[in-house]
Write a structure and sequence with these properties.
Helix content is 31%, strand content 30%. The chain has ten helices and 18 strands. The two termini are 19 Å apart.
């Protein structure tokens, strides 16, 4: 009997539209002969199953079921394609955990930990992983510009602590630019992370559980036309993404071991994509995305293709790994 698979997409954050695109790619690349596939929009104003002819059927939040054409549909597994809140921060996964519904992401605590950039970095540092110098700032706190610059230097990056797709991030080159950058980031989150600028090639690495084995996908080197890998660079073609990355065999091995180590340290499962900067032949960990983009422009699909893994195989594997656990 075919399993019922809900692909959840949308979410409550600035990344909702990107998530809807990711969810559509997943929907188009999962076999309808192998599974019963349902698109589920998780939006602030509604949770609904959306059919191909755009009919909507409300989700019963008591048990995450839907009544379609007079038939109650329960889901055997949820494919999580929600970037940001409530999918990537673990919120909705805790709900599924309570209901006993399996899903393609890591456990909710691991998702919450990695989504919080500051907490994630604090854990990683304890294991000897190199990270950028940083300052934490919460809304309402006194902004001590001189102290911030003394700690991280200029240029530096101002980032929302809980946000993705580079929303709210600024590269600050002068003291005058710092306050506007902080105000911009506070529009996305009440907690900020201000980091030193690391000057070196940026390498993004996909790691996942593929056929019961932690697998590091071919790495991508990011060469951006903008000041950094911002929204335009990620989604509007303002960057060159070179897969496999132009790095030495020794550096490739070092990054492969480090990416695997970080995946294990954080007790991850499912998809991840992490960013590293190489400075003086040493990789520095920036952050981890646990619901990485799955659109046609996204990096994980590119890396999977370079590894000889088709999108159907990639997505079917995620579902099978979830069902087995």
């Amino acid at each position: 009997m075919k399993k019922n698979i809900a692909i959840i997409m949308g979410g409550y954050s600035s990344e909702a539209n990107i998530s809807l695109k990711s969810g559509e790619v997943v929907y188009k690349n999962i076999s309808k002969e192998k599974y019963n596939i349902f698109k589920v929009y998780i939006l602030k104003n509604k949770w609904v199953v959306v059919t191909d002819n755009l009919n909507e059927y409300a989700i019963n939040k008591h048990d995450f079921s839907a009544n379609i054409h007079g038939k109650k549909i329960n889901f055997d597994c949820v494919f999580n394609a929600i970037h940001g809140h409530p999918g990537e921060d673990g919120t909705i996964l805790a709900y599924f955990n309570l209901l006993g519904i399996k899903h393609t992401s890591a456990p909710f605590y691991q998702m919450a930990l990695t989504f919080n950039k500051r907490d994630c970095l604090s854990v990683i540092k304890k294991y000897g992983v190199k990270t950028a110098k940083s300052v934490y700032l919460d809304k309402g706190e006194k902004i001590e510009i001189t102290k911030i610059i003394e700690t991280v230097g200029l240029p530096c990056f101002v980032k929302p602590n809980n946000a993705g797709s580079s929303f709210g991030i600024s590269k600050v080159k002068t003291e005058k630019e710092l306050i506007p950058a902080i105000k911009k980031a506070f529009k996305e989150d009440s907690q900020l992370l201000i980091e030193e600028f690391l000057d070196g090639p940026e390498i993004t690495i996909g790691v996942l559980n593929y056929k019961n084995k932690i697998t590091v996908l071919p790495m991508t080197e990011i060469v951006t036309n903008n000041d950094f890998f911002d929204y335009e660079a990620k989604y509007l073609g303002k960057s060159e993404e070179i897969t496999p990355a132009r790095i030495t065999e020794n550096m490739h091995k070092k990054l492969e071991l480090l990416a695997t180590k970080v995946y294990k340290i954080l007790n991850m499962s499912g998809f991840t994509r992490s960013e590293y900067i190489i400075v003086n032949n040493e990789p520095y960990f920036l952050e981890m995305n646990t619901v990485p983009g799955l659109t046609t422009e996204s990096l994980i699909p590119q890396q999977a293709d370079a590894a000889g893994i088709s999108l159907p195989n990639l997505f079917h594997n995620a579902i099978e790994m979830a069902l087995k656990h």
